[in-house]
Write a structure and sequence with these properties.
Layout (H helix, E strand, L loop, with lengths): L1 E3 L18 E3 L3 E5 L3 E5 L6 H14 L5 H10 L7
Parallel strand pairs: 1-2
Antiparallel strand pairs: 3-4
């Protein structure tokens, strides 16, 4: 999993290459912070919840499909990352 910028570019710090299946926003993401605060954060750690949440929604609607079918739904709905 990799991180993308607000312009759908691969983030400079992100993973890349043929083994990378999907990317999600990871630059200047608004995230919950301790003590009821919010922060603007950057990193692949902040990209993961976008993908995890999307997979959870897909699985909640398609409970009987295989992991490969879920992966196909995820990939089909993704936009290409610009280089």
């Amino acid at each position: 999993m990799g991180a993308t910028t607000n312009a759908d570019l691969r983030a400079a710090f992100s993973n890349y290459g043929s083994t990378l299946d999907i990317g999600a926003p990871g630059v200047q993401v608004i995230a919950a912070y301790p003590r009821g605060k919010w922060a603007v954060v950057t990193g692949t750690s902040f990209s993961d919840p976008y993908v995890s949440g999307t997979v959870a929604l897909i699985r909640s609607l398609q409970r009987r499909e295989s992991a490969d079918e879920t992966d196909a739904h995820l990939s089909d709905g993704a936009a290409p990352v610009k280089n």
